[in-house]
Amino acid sequence: MYDHPVCGQADGCPNVTCDVQCAARRTDWGDACGVFGVFAPGQDVARITYFGLYALQHRGQESAGIAVWHPREEMQHHKGMGLCFQVFTEQILRSLQGDCAIGHVRYSTTGSSHIYNAQPMFGEGKFGPFAVAHNGNLVNAHQLHEQLEMQGPEMAGISDTAVMVALLSRSSADTLEEAIIEMMGIIKGAYSLVLLAPEKIIAVRDAHGVRPLCIGRLNGDHWVIASETCALHTIGADFIREVEPGEMIVIDKDGLSATEVLKPTRKACCIFEFIYFARPDSHIYGRSVYMSRQRMGHLLAQQAPVEADLVIPVPESGIPHAMGYAEVAKIPYGEGFIKNRYIHRTFIAPDQRLRELGVKMKLAPLKEAVRGKRLIVVDDSIVRGTTTGPEIALLREAGAREIHLRINCPPIKWGCFYGVDTSAGRSELIAARMSVEEIRQHLGADSLEYLNMKNLIAAVGLPKSNFCTACFDNQYPIPVPKELKVAKADVAPAKSAEEEKQPAPS
Question: Is 33 a catalytic residue?
Answer without folding.
Answer: yes
